[in-house]
Every structure is written in structure tokens, then in C-alpha cells.
Fold this protein.
Amino acid sequence: MKESTNNALIFIMISIFLIGIVIFKLVDKHFSKSPNRTVINMIVSCIIINIMIMVFLVKSFSKIQIVRGPPGPKGNRGEIGNIGNPDSCGVCGKQPNSVGHNAIEDKKLNSTIPEKPLLAKENDPWSKFWGKPVKIYKIIGDKKCGLTMVLSKSSLGKTISNAVFDCSGYADTLVLNQNSNNREVYIYNRTGKHYNKETGITKVLPLKCNLTISDNKFQDMGSTRDSYFDCDNKPTPVFIEGTPFGFSISATDVDHYTCYFNQNTNDDTAYFNCDSGDVRNLIVEIAKPEGDLIKTSTKSKNEFKIKNIKSNIYKRAESLKDSIVNLIISDSD
């Protein structure tokens, strides 16, 4: 196929060359007595040569296909914007396409974008934490501060629990319950006894209390809200952004501002800061059941017994071997 294409190109070039000579002769004969004969012959020669070059380039490069190179590295992901104000009125009708939408559509037309199969399942990193007893920690440098509750009675007679980060490493056992909206989460405590092995103190949480944002300012600081675990009112969801190994908790206050869960450096009290950005310095871990300590100690005792039995068997085998050797030596004598 390639040889036939080359032969056709050679035939076309020879044909153009012969036709050009004929045209050159006719023009030269027509302007033989003209004083500008030499200039006219040069112009005709240049035209014929340019036509031959153009035909050669068009025929030579018409079958060349552009090969797309390897894709370059992706850029850094931009910061997630703040949550917008809720609106009860939906936007109806067809919306005009934005510049970004048009750019993506053009990219789809000009390149192949790999897509996941429709039947492929996406692994949700949070799936193993929903409805399970967990512990939430905040990483501050080398310190690991656990989220805890301090029960108290309010002036209205309601039972509330202040949210505090305990930097001794202890954290109360909490439960994450996913709402119908994937980003909305209810965070509440597991009722019952909570043992702090760091202090040796056991506290009892008889009520189920949900992490909530308050309408009051935190210590009269501007653009802040108190955080507490509400044990009486209907629970309100909070929002989680990120992965279990680095996430943030946020909530919408009464003025429809997005406030992020934070820690007061003076007394480790937790509060919501409505001026800070999305800093994902929280981690979550599955809480170990209380029976694990008993199982571990029982297992260690069993392993100790097995090691003692093995050592006794080895000692008896050694003594039996020594007895047989002594008996053989006495018989030989």
C-alpha cells in the first residue's frame, strides 16, 4: 500500500513537471520579443516549482496521524467553599451553561476521558464507621486529644453536656449515624459506663446526647458559637468533610453561617468558629469493646500455660536421653 502511494506521487510530480515545461515554452515563445522576457520566465519557473512543492507536501503529509502524548500530572485540588445559605425556593427552568461547563464539554469532544463502569462500586471510606462505636480525636502536633462529655444541668433544668477535648489521650465512646443526605451526620454518645484508664475513673452517661451548635457565643467571642451535647431536644445534624484519617466537623448557626468545630487552647473546651476555614485535623477510630481486655488476658494466660507444658516436655525428653546414654555406657563396660 505504501509503495503504490509513492508511485502515484512520483507519477503526479513528473506529470506536473512536463506540463510546466510545456507552459514555460509557450510563455517563452509568446514573450520572445519582449524586453522583460527573462523576468517573466523566472516568474513562471517559480510558480511551477511552488506548485510541485505544494503537491508534494499535501500528498506526503495527508496520511500522518497525530499521536497524543502521555497525560501530565494533575494539579492540586482547590479548597472546598463554604456551605451556602439554605433556601426553600428551588431554581426552576434550564440554566445557562457556565464557562467551566463549556470547557469540559469541549474536552470530552477532543479527547477520551476514562470513566468508571456503571456497575463498579465505589468504596466509601466511612462505611465501616456508620452506626459503630467510635472515638474521635484531634491531632495537635504530637498530642492526641479525645472528644469527651461533661454532664451538667442548665438553668432551665435541662441536661446538657459540654464538649471538651481531653489531651491525656482518653476519648468517650461515640456513635456516628448517617442521615439520608450523605454529608449530614448525627454524633451522639454511647450510653452506659465509660472507663478512663488514664485516671482510673468510671463515669456513667445515662442519656443519649447529640453534638449540637448553640445560639450563644462562646465566651463572648465574636463569630463563635458554643458546642454541647443536647440530651433533651430533637437532634440536629452536623456536617463531615474529608476522610476518617483527616476530617472536619461543621454546623450551620442561626444566622446561616458555616461554623467549624474547634478547640479553645486555654481550657480545651470545644466550640464552633464561624471565621476559620476547613481545617481537617480530626481522626476517628473504632472503639474497642470492653471484653477485649478480658480476652487478651485470658489469651496471654493460655499462651503462658502452653509454653510451660512445652518446656516440661523438653526437660523430660532431655532426662530420658541422658538415662539411655548412661545405660549404654554401663553395658559396654
Notes: The chain is about 30% helix and 25% strand. The helical segments are 2-30, 37-61, 99-110, 291-332.
